[in-house]
Amino acid sequence: MIKCHLSRLMGERKLKISDVARAIDVHRNTITLLYDENANRVDLDTLNKLCIFFDCNVDDLLQFVPEE
Questions:
Q1: How many whole angstroms separate alpha carbon 22 and alpha carbon 17?
Q2: What is the pLDDT of residues 11-60, one digit of tens each?
């Protein structure tokens, strides 16, 4: 399973979904799906924009967790 840490990154900076969506020019629904960990796929451009915005690596944003 892939875990998305977007909600943690946003919480640390006290950002709203709309703040991030507007800042990186990505649809609000895309950010909401990642925030709620309901996204089935993510565009590489979106990951790139998030990593630049949060000044982080992909592994700070996404984590592979083996299912038990």
A1: 9
A2: 999 999 999 999 999 999 999 999 999 999 999 999 999 999 999 999 99
